[in-house]
Automatic annotation (TrEMBL):
Record-given protein name: N-acetyltransferase HLS1-like
N-acetyltransferase domain segment(s): 10-151
Transferase recorded as keyword: yes
Organism of provenance: Pyrus ussuriensis x Pyrus communis
UniProt keywords, alphabetically: Transferase
GO MF annotations in UniProt: acyltransferase activity, transferring groups other than amino-acyl groups
Highest taxon, organism lineage: Eukaryota
InterPro entries on file: Acyl_CoA_acyltransferase, GNAT_dom, Plant_NAT
CDD domains, A to Z: NAT_SF (cd04301)
Keyword rRNA-binding included in the entry's annotation: no
Length: 368
């Protein structure tokens, strides 16, 4: 229990799905949500005025280091109860929970234009800016109808092949989830594909030695990517769909007009999108392949029930970011990552936050 402005007392407690889901859903709409959810409740009348979610992740870096990090997602405070210290109390509560769970660092993200959140994170909670990423959003209804080029081959990988190939390439990323096998085996992951040019070929997955360092042995151009289906997840967890619309509604109105929905629309359980993750490409013709990848995902989206959008998120230093098709109906949202150390490090050389900007990252689809 804490006291905020005007002697108002607020209880910070853990979220209860049985009793809080409806009112937290309303709070999400008013604000434009294994993890833990915390809520802020006014003691005088039991009104829920804030919510936050935290989860634990295990990540690796390009230098070979491994870390336990906490991710803070979906911080929301009712508009009429802002500037009263509730957001700060929720942040401290979830940070304490993450520390108890063994997190060494906490990460969170917000839009560049969200000044209120940025000030809270940097000035009051001592977070530092780590990376800028771009979320690319395109309506499924605008899928390109051009046929796939005949010289481009498409292979859907067996999950074990995908795990092996990703693990051999993740070392090129500044930060990535170490449980990639868990992600790929999730039922929400629709599969992993490789695109390459037929005349060039690509990696021989049957040979472990040839897969260890093929970048130096071949000039082939190829791209690997996986697709995550949020539609079913949002049916089971409506608060996640509300969080998604809060983020996406800040983009341009173009994709909402395509869907015949107003920007202020409340999310329904029949909303979802396909998320392209694990995008990695090599070779001097990856630009041509990237166009086909996006076309493929858009076509697939038309076959998935309730899928309305195609999303991908890439760091500003990711080599593929310059090859994302910039069609007229494509919207871009700047997503800024912030980080903070939760423990004292004896050797700053081992500290994740002093390694410089994290510009080429593997975005975990479970965060959407």
């Amino acid at each position: 229990m804490v006291e905020i402005a005007d002697h108002t007392k607020v209880l910070i407690r853990e979220f209860s799905e049985d009793t809080d889901i409806e009112v937290v859903g309303k709070l999400e709409r008013d604000c434009e949500i294994e993890s833990k959810k915390g809520v802020a409740e006014l003691l005088e009348n039991g009104e829920l005025v804030g919510v936050v979610r935290g989860c634990i992740k295990h990540v690796g870096t390009g230098s070979g280091a491994k870390y336990v990090i906490g991710c803070i997602l979906g911080l929301r405070v009712s508009p009429i109860h802002r500037r009263m210290g509730i957001g700060l109390k929720l942040m401290k509560s979830v940070e304490e929970w993450l520390l108890r769970k063994g997190a060494q660092y906490t990460f969170l993200a917000t839009e560049e234009s969200n000044t209120a959140s940025t000030n809270l994170f940097t000035y009051k909670c001592n977070y530092r800016k780590l990376s800028s990423l771009i979320i690319f959003v395109q309506p499924v209804c605008s899928a390109v109808e051009d046929p796939m080029p005949r010289d481009i081959k498409i292979e859907k990988l067996h999950v074990d092949e995908a795990i092996f190939l990703y693990k051999s390439r993740l070392r090129s990323k500044d930060i990535y989830p170490t449980d990639i096998d868990v992600i790929l085996k999730e039922k929400l992951s629709l599969g992993t594909w490789v695109f390459y040019f037929e005349e060039q070929g690509w990696i021989n997955l049957n040979s472990e030695e040839s897969s260890k360092d093929t970048a130096g042995e071949t000039q082939s151009s190829w791209i690997i990517f996986s697709i995550w289906n949020t539609c079913e997840a949002y049916k089971s967890h409506p608060l996640r769909s509300l969080h998604a619309i809060a983020t996406l509604s800040h983009a341009t109105e173009k994709f909402f007009s395509c869907l015949n929905l107003p920007v202020s629309v409340s999310m329904q359980s029949s909303f979802g999108f396909l998320f392209l993750y694990g995008l990695h490409g090599e070779g001097d013709k990856v630009g041509e392949l990237m166009k086909s990848v996006w076309n493929f995902a858009s076509r697939l989206g038309q076959t998935v029930k309730d899928s309305k959008l195609i999303l991908a998120e890439l760091g500003l230093c990711d080599p593929l970011i310059k090859h994302v098709p910039k069609d007229s109906d494509m919207s871009c949202i700047e997503d800024v990552w912030y980080g903070k150390s939760l423990i004292n490090h004896a050797d700053d050389k081992d500290e994740l936050l002093v390694q410089g900007s994290l510009g080429n990252v593997f975005v975990d689809p479970r965060e959407f």
